[in-house]
């Protein structure tokens, strides 16, 4: 027996938090009856429906995607734009992204149907590193970079301390710089807003790493299945915030 919201998350319906909201909204039935209690427990023999659709248990799948620019980090888009789900036509299971990269940002994105793992990987309390490389307009000085390192005041709160490294600087035509920045939060368009706040807008942005995972061997638009060991390490990080030995 397991809690209904956990079962929904494990089945890839949504993250655990969103699964809880589906239950509270009366969109989930167990054995033909609407259930709105979050503590409800179900077994493998129970029939579960979400929005009138019977839940079929899926095998868990995990993929690492090199998301190109100009792709939406979503399963569907009401404007008809191409989504990351469209890059997996050969996968029968319903995949969704772990967190998001904005439309113009490229880089590493985990795709899975494991809602429970997705929820814990994106929860800020575990402080899982995400490393980006940004090309910015202008060349920040040491003091501006220290502001990023200490945390930037944004409209939705101050960012946590970041690790920042100036990779290169080109003074031609007004100047531009390539900067590596590592954060563990996931505020909306956070990296872009951090650089805007210090006066150096991002011209191009790419996520290079998520935790211990990188993009080695992949071109934009390509993906690979995560190994069982990589999935195990992600689970350890989701549970403890650390990589086990």
UniProtKB/TrEMBL annotation:
Q: Which GO terms describe its cellular component?
A: cytosol
Reported EC number(s) for this entry are: 5.4.99.-
Q: Which InterPro entries match?
A: PsdUridine_s_RsuA/RluB/E/F_cat, PsdUridine_synth_cat_dom_sf, PsdUridine_synth_RsuA/RluA, PsdUridine_synth_RsuA/RluB/E/F, PsdUridine_synth_RsuA/RluB_CS, RsuA_PseudoU_synthase, S4_RNA-bd, S4_RNA-bd_sf
Which enzyme type, at the first EC level? isomerase
Q: In the record, what terms sit under GO molecular function?
A: RNA binding; rRNA pseudouridine synthase activity
Q: Write the record's keywords in alphabetical order, separated by commas.
A: Isomerase, RNA-binding
Q: Does the keyword section mention 4Fe-4S?
A: no
The segment(s) forming the RNA-binding S4 domain are: 2-59
Q: Which residues form a coiled coil?
A: none
Q: Which domain of life is it from?
A: Bacteria
Task: Give GO terms for biological process.
Answer: enzyme-directed rRNA pseudouridine synthesis
The record's annotation in SUPFAM superfamilies points to:
Alpha-L RNA-binding motif, Pseudouridine synthase
Which PANTHER family did the record assign? Answer: PSEUDOURIDINE SYNTHASE FAMILY PROTEIN-RELATED (PTHR47683), RNA-BINDING S4 DOMAIN-CONTAINING PROTEIN (PTHR47683:SF2)
Membership in a protein family = Belongs to the pseudouridine synthase RsuA family.
Question: Which protein are we looking at?
Answer: Pseudouridine synthase
Q: What organism does the UniProt record list as the source?
A: Paenisporosarcina antarctica
Q: What is the lineage of its organism?
A: Bacteria, Bacillati, Bacillota, Bacilli, Bacillales
């Amino acid at each position: 027996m397991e809690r209904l919201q956990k079962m929904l998350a494990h089945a890839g319906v949504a993250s655990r938090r969103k699964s809880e909201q589906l239950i509270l909204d009366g969109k989930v039935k167990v054995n033909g009856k609407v259930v709105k209690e979050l503590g409800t427990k179900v077994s493998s023999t129970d029939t579960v429906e979400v929005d009138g659709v019977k839940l079929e248990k899926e095998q868990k799948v995990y993929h690492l995607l090199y998301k190109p620019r100009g792709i939406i980090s979503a399963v569907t888009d009401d404007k008809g734009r191409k989504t990351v789900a469209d890059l997996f036509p050969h996968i029968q299971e319903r995949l969704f992204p772990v967190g998001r990269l904005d439309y113009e940002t490229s880089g590493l994105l985990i795709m899975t149907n494991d809602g429970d793992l997705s929820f814990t990987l994106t929860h800020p309390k575990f402080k899982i590193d995400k490393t980006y490389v940004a090309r910015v307009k202008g060349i920040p000085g040491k003091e501006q970079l220290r502001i990023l390192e200490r945390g930037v005041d944004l409209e939705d709160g101050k960012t946590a301390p970041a690790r920042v490294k100036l990779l290169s600087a080109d003074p031609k035509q007004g100047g531009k710089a390539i900067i590596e920045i590592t954060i563990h939060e996931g505020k909306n368009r956070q990296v872009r807003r951090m650089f805007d706040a210090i006066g150096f807008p991002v011209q191009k942005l790419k996520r290079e790493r998520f935790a211990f995972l990188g993009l080695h061997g992949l071109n934009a638009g390509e993906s690979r299945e995560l190994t069982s060991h990589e999935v195990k390490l992600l689970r350890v990080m989701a549970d403890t915030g650390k990589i086990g030995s």
